[in-house]
Specification:
It is built from 12 helices and 11 strands. The protein is an alpha/beta fold and 349 residues long. The chain folds into 2 domains: 167 residues, Rossmann fold (3-Layer(aba) Sandwich), CATH 3.40.50.1970; 177 residues, Dehydroquinate synthase-like - alpha domain (Dehydroquinate synthase-like, alpha domain). It has a 7-stranded mixed β-sheet with strand order 1-2-9-6-5-3-4. Strands 7-8 form a two-stranded antiparallel ribbon. A two-stranded antiparallel ribbon has the order 10-11. A hairpin with a 2-residue loop joins strand 10 and strand 11. Bound molecules: glycine. The site of glycine has 4 residues, from loops.
């Protein structure tokens, strides 16, 4: 299955299905006939997986980087670029990022800056990577001042979402990844009734199609459409931030997003934008995927409000993506008292 990302200057496809990784070699010989070298950027953990059987029909090298956010550093960027230079990788050649969202972010940024830009192909190996991180061209590394502060827009030549690579994910990792899928399912207005009959491919397809549409509408994150993808992320990011500070394993990103989705439905109801049906539907979708819909763990309401607020001291100017009569949209300047009330109720539930 091919889902087009119809960007005017750099259109590409997301190729989805079991075993699609084996088609990359033909794509490279077709689209990059002058390529002599493929460089795979991945982690030792991913390289050990049984499905790591990639062959491209031309000289291939593998550069290993750390798993997760640890890969997204300027040091790693420099080390990978030095290795590319030693391998005499040219602008005709191609980098293939094989990993979760952090590795595809790094591989994309390496490709954006090495020789001022070489081609990159992404093979995301996590659910979040397949439905979100590997698509859209935003690439970056982290610096001490914050996440993703050094990066570039650099669209891939193609994204291969191979469902076979998801079979070796741990149960918690896999379930948490569905937090982003649940978000897309809701934003796309898919019903809870349709969940039972949907396949893994269908879940990924719905999510990729939404991401592709949003990226085409707002490639460089200027006109605001990309903000729709932040549904569930305002509270989600806040609890992720607070939980990470005390225990790296307490909460996965997708679990935090799921809790954020449940809260956003309740906040929309508190603002009179939707009724109980939207809250119930949201909870049903989250439960279907085995995701949390309650704020468990010890979170302080003031700390959460501070983490969610644009103005950390005054606790005003809350912005959320919320459901309403016109569907899902960005809502700004929400009364902080309503946010506090909804949060207190949510915490007690
Ligand atoms: N790389 C993710 C995005 O562009 O949204």
């Amino acid at each position: 299955m091919r889902i087009p990302v119809r960007l005017r200057d750099a259109p590409y496809d997301v190729i989805l299905g079991a075993g699609v990784r084996h088609e990359i070699g033909d794509f490279i010989s077709d689209r990059l006939p002058r390529a002599h070298v493929v460089v795979v950027v991945t982690s030792p953990e991913i390289r050990r997986q049984p499905w790591f059987d990639l062959s491209f029909g031309i000289e291939t090298h593998v550069i290993e980087v750390a798993d997760g956010e640890a890969a997204k550093t300027l040091d790693t960027l420099e080390r990978v670029c030095e290795t590319l230079a030693q391998l005499r990788v040219s602008r005709h050649d191609v980098i293939v990022g094989v990993g979760g969202g952090a590795i595809t972010d790094l591989a994309g940024f390496v490709a954006a800056v090495y020789l001022r830009g070489v081609a990159v192909i992404q093979v995301p190996t996590s659910v979040v990577g397949q439905v979100d991180a590997a698509i859209g061209g935003k690439t970056a590394v982290n610096i001490a001042a914050g996440k993703n502060l050094v990066g570039a827009f650099h669209q891939p030549l193609g994204v291969w979402c191979d469902t076979e690579v998801l079979t070796t994910l741990g149960a918690r990792e896999r379930t948490a990844g569905f937090g982003e899928v649940a978000k897309c399912w809701l934003v796309e207005g898919r019903s809870r009734a349709a969940l039972g009959a949907a396949t893994m491919e269908a879940f990924i397809e719905v999510s990729v199609a939404l991401k592709a549409r949003v990226v085409v509408a707002d490639e460089f994150e200027q006109s605001g459409e990309r903000a729709l993808l932040n549904y569930g992320h305002t509270l989600g990011h806040a609890i992720e931030l607070l939980a990470l500070a005390r225990d790296a394993d307490e909460l996965r990103h997708g679990e935090a997003v799921a809790i954020g989705l449940a809260f956003a439905a309740r906040l929309a109801r508190a603002l009179g934008r939707v009724g109980d049906d939207v809250v119930d539907e949201t909870d049903d979708v989250l439960h279907f995927f085995g995701l949390p819909s309650r704020l468990t763990g010890s979170f302080d309401v003031d700390e959460l409000l501070a983490a969610m607020s644009r103005d950390k001291k005054a606790h005003h100017n809350f912005t959320f993506v919320l459901a309403g009569e016109r569907g899902y949209e960005v809502v700004s300047d929400i009364d902080p008292r309503v946010v506090r009330g909804a949060l207190e109720q949510f915490k007690e539930a």
